[in-house]
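User: Good morning. I'm curious how pyridoxal-5'-phosphate would be positioned relative to this chain. Could you predict the structure with it bound?
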Amino acid sequence: MTPRPVAWGETRYSIDETMMQSNILARTADLPKHSPWREQVRDAFRDAAELLEFLELPATTTTQPRFPMLVPRAFADRMEKANPDDPLLRQVLPDPGEHRVESGFVADPVGDRDARVGRGLLHKYHGRVLLVSTGACAVHCRYCFRQEFPYADNHAGSRQWHAAIDYIAANPEIDEVILSGGDPLMLSTTRLKELTDRLAGIEHLHRLRIHTRLPVVLPDRVDKSLLHWLEHLPWPVVMVLHANHAREFDDSVDQATRRLRRAGVHLLNQAVLLKGINDGFESQRALVRRGLEAGVMPYYLHLLDRVAGADRYEVTEATATGLVERLRRELSGYLVPRLVREIAGAPYKLPVL
Ligand SMILES: *Cc1c(COP(=O)(O)O)cnc(C)c1O
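Assistant: Good morning! Here's the predicted structure, ligand included:
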């Protein structure tokens, strides 16, 4: 298996422009006290042996991972020491099984390539487009469905979003732009603002959506400049977080989500059903309850996208439907996520139950 030529996590960043004058300064007493988020990305665990040592676990046999490991310390701090089955660790620790060739597990399981309509722009569903704004992310989940995505030629970062903006401007049926990636919040706030300033000139846009895992894995990303940007956007903003386990939430995440909500952002969560991590009833119930405590409503529960290298995470459809059936019986309706599967070429994410 030869590693892909994509520079996962190797990006070096310029210092973000700080926005000093913000009307939210008055209520930012709970702002982060740790090092700035970019430094935290720089200092993230990139070596499995180092992470295992930090967790007081024995080193395992090392194989070259399918793509580099990347785990911020803020996330590793929430892992239980000396527990090889920790549900957070299991999401991010490379495994020799990633090199297994399993039929049905492919490079592009959701048909992203066929949905490309311009550099970094995917138009799959009516009315909304997804902008792959960067290939970088602060955490490399081993089941990432875009792990093989050719970001080098196909993201709209680095001021290369003219084509995407032209496409959106020329298609009045598009009223929502989804910033995704990678993780869009890996871009500097200055860069994000440049992008939304351009989008603000398009009259038929009415909503902005941001798909991000950073408020969960690196809550200090929710800093003053980000909040200032969010507060001043001209559209309703929906942020879809990605947490798979109740233990991904802690006090620092609660503070980040509180700040986001104060900035007027609607918070939803999507999770992926993962074998051995969150495929039990208790685990799913704890996730949606804990999410609500952080002000986050469940959105989707995805069946695993069958990306090459991720077969060890797959949960059977029977287990998934049984699980959601029980959630429906025992929880308030709004706490039950929609169980969906993404099929390449389908007009929406297909309900499984
Ligand atoms: C998932 C996805 C969306 C959003 O779908 P919703 O059902 O509105 O959440 C949009 N575009 C692409 C390319 C997607 O993969």
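The two ends are 37 Å apart (CA to CA). The chain has two domains: 17-99, 113-351.
Let me know if you'd like a different ligand tried.
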